[in-house]
Amino acid sequence: MNNLPISLKELTKSFGDFNAVDSISLDIQEGEIYGFLGPNGAGKSTTIRAILNFIRPTKGKIEVFSLDSVNNSTEIKKHIGYLAGSAEVYEEMRVERALRYFANLKGVNCDKEIKSLSRKFKLDLTKKVGDLSKGNLQKVALIQAFMHNPQLLILDEPTSGLDPLMKEVFYKLIKSKASKGATIFLSSHDLLEVQKVCHKLAIIKDGKIIAVEDLTQNSRLNTTNYEITLSKPIKKVELEKVKSIVRSRVSGKKVTIATKGDLTALFRKLSKYGIVKISEKKITLEDLFLHYY
């Protein structure tokens, strides 16, 4: 394998006869924000737990920075910042003490980063952990993942509980980290979030990778959807003759199409049927998600 932050080859994790993760392969490059998208139960957290060696693969191989995830687990964890899907912190500790405790476990002094990140996330370090809201608990978990400036961040539902302003702070933070060479593996079921920040996306369903999308280049994300009402009905076969149409759906006088390229021929064709109303929208990951599922 290459010296990749994460490389999965035919990873399978079974629990009895049930394959929670079924023969998935992914290569994640340095500096990428890589989205891992799927509903609850799709296999996202199981994959993450296997990468971190919390559970052993049934079959296949996992390498992190060219190190075997099982044999070199301790060394690998020195370079990873991890946010669990449900983080737990000692409730009786003050926030600053809890974060320093986590830093001591890693054997690093993170005082400067703790203060800087707490300012970014507007987190009061003097409060007791047990008195924090869900959103502020999430901030504590995020800070402990970021505070030692890891080369690789593995984040499971990172914005859960955050308000919109704090989500923007998080998005800006991971983009900044990626621009400096850090790699972010972001598990989510939030389609808009993944679309907003990720370079690439893997969609997982029932433990299998059903699609990998390049969000910077993929042609499907560069298409435009039009919803058009005509004054008289058109047959779908007429639309299939237009090269710029990627896909279409016709229901009487209503037409829904996805297009790419020069639209001159399209609107020339539609004008013969009388255009009553036309609305335009960029295709979203939600459209892709519904398509794949």
Summary tags:
31% strand; 4-stranded antiparallel sheet; 293 residues; elongated; 6-stranded mixed sheet; 31% helix; alpha/beta
General description of the model:
The chain has 293 residues and is of the alpha/beta class. 31% of the residues lie in helices and 31% in strands. A six-stranded mixed beta sheet has the order 6-7-8-3-9-10, with helices on both faces. The mean pLDDT is 89.
- The fraction of residues assigned to DSSP E strands is 25-35%
The profile of the biggest β sheet is: 6 strands, mixed
Secondary structure class reads: alpha/beta
**Termini distance?**
31 Å
Count of individual beta strands: 14
Order of helices and strands: EEEHEEHEHHHEHEHEEEHEEHEH
Residues in helices, as a percent range: 25-40%
Overall geometric form: elongated
Determine the mean pLDDT.
89
Number of helix segments?
Answer: 10
Radius of gyration: 23 Å
Low-confidence stretches: none
Strand order of the largest sheet: 6-7-8-3-9-10
Quick description:
The chain is of the alpha/beta class and 293 residues long. The protein is 31% helix and 31% strand.
Describe the SSE topology.
Blueprint: E1 6-15, E2 18-28, E3 33-37, H1 44-51, E4 59-64, E5 67-68, H2 73-77, E6 80-83, H3 95-106, H4 111-120, H5 134-146, E7 152-156, H6 164-179, E8 183-188, H7 191-197, E9 200-205, E10 208-214, E11 224-230, H8 236-239, E12 245-251, E13 254-259, H9 264-271, E14 275-282, H10 285-292
